[in-house]
Amino acid sequence: MKTGVRALGIAESYRSETSHLAGAVVRASRVVDGFVFSSCTVGGSDATDAVCEMVERLDREDVRYLLLSGIAPAWFNVLDLRAIRDRTGLPTVSVAFESSPGLESAIREAFDDRGTVEARLETYRAQPDRRRVSVNGEAVYVRAVGLDDDAAADVVRGFTPEGGRPEPLRVARLAARGLVDAG
């Protein structure tokens, strides 16, 4: 991957009812090139819109990829990767850092309202399957829209100079934590 290629990584940190989202534009060479911030509701259903609005506000034509930390930030505020790709035009890659049997049973246990459960499950089930990807000897779990599985793995590896966390997501997570700590 060329060193000047840019990705926007979005990660979250939360306490209480608001999740703070941070986006970091990072070049493949590890140069941080910009930030954007937003929030979404813990336990809500507004994370997809918040991510799309962050990309729109950032307004950077040079960003080639969107990397998201996980699929369900802010206590099961499930992201719709296809909707994000359609609205932003960016190949969208969700990266998880732990193996899991999936979120269906956890979503069912977390919410009492049947309508809420079914809406989240419908969005969750519509997402591409996770694929295990080896990165620097570590495993990450990737879902991608707008890229085939091999290209998505190449993007994740290309933005991960060491360890298993892509640099745009590492920097975004630090920025999100800083927002929470400052508040």
From TrEMBL:
It holds the Pfam family Endo_dU. It comes from the Archaea. Belongs to the UPF0215 family. PANTHER family: UPF0215 PROTEIN MJ1150. HAMAP family: UPF0215 (MF_00582). This is UPF0215 protein KTS45_16215.
